[in-house]
Each structure stands twice: as C-alpha cells, then as structure tokens.
Amino acid sequence: MRPLPNILVLTAALALTGCHSHYVAIDVQNASGTPITLMEVDYPSASFGTETLAAGATYHYRFKILGDGPTKILWTDASQHEHTIPGPSLTEGQEGTLTATITPTTATWQSHLRANYSLKIRPWNPFSARANQTLAPAHSSDGSDTPA
To answer: Among 98, 101, 116, 132, which lies 20 to 30 A Cα-Cα from 109?
Structure first.
C-alpha cells in the first residue's frame, strides 16, 4: 500500500472511534410535597443549583468531575428550614447517573457511576520535581563517595 491510502485509513479509523467525554447526569427530584428554594448541589471543584424547585419537579444537570471528593445537597424548605445532606464521594473520571430525591425531612441518593479506566497521558514536564531528581552518589566499598 502507498503512504497516502495508509494515512487516509488511519484518519478514518480515528474519526470513527471518536472521543468520549466522561460526565455525570444528575436528577434532583422534589418529592417533599411543597416547593423548595435555594437548592444547591456541591461536588468536587464546583456546584450548581436553582432558586426554586416546584413540588414534584425534577432538575436535570450534567457535569464533569474534576478532582476527588464528597457531594452534598443543600436546600431551604417551605418552612424556611435549611437542610444539608451528604452524598456519595466522587472520583475524577467517573461517569454515569446520580439521583437525589428530596423528601419532607431528608434527601436520598442513588448512584449508578462507573470508573473510567482510560489511560491518562500527560506531557513530560522538564521542570517537574520528578524530572529533576538527581541520582545519589555511588559509594565505594570503603565508604567514600568516590566512584568504585
């Protein structure tokens, strides 16, 4: 085969495999029976929310996990009581779905997340601590630091 067809075949193969962005789709369901206000979901490195969520409504959101850490949901109920309920811990690269269901007194979480096992390729940084490690001097049998 000539080089040009090889390049075209390789380009087509790469285009067909495509890229996949790992994200989490979350549904926050208000099953409390009354409207809630100031709903917020905190997750590693960011948060999102809405001013109001009607009784029986669902708030849909998608996000990418950058970093590792816990989640939590905060809201104010119709009686102006503030609630904070911890959620699952997330790990960078996970993807899947989360559901947080707000009830009159608490919130429950359902997690359907899977790990991302893709290879992380990071460019070599000549200024990193690892790149600048020096080798320890060789020791001779007499204990001096001169090469043996």
So the answer is: 116
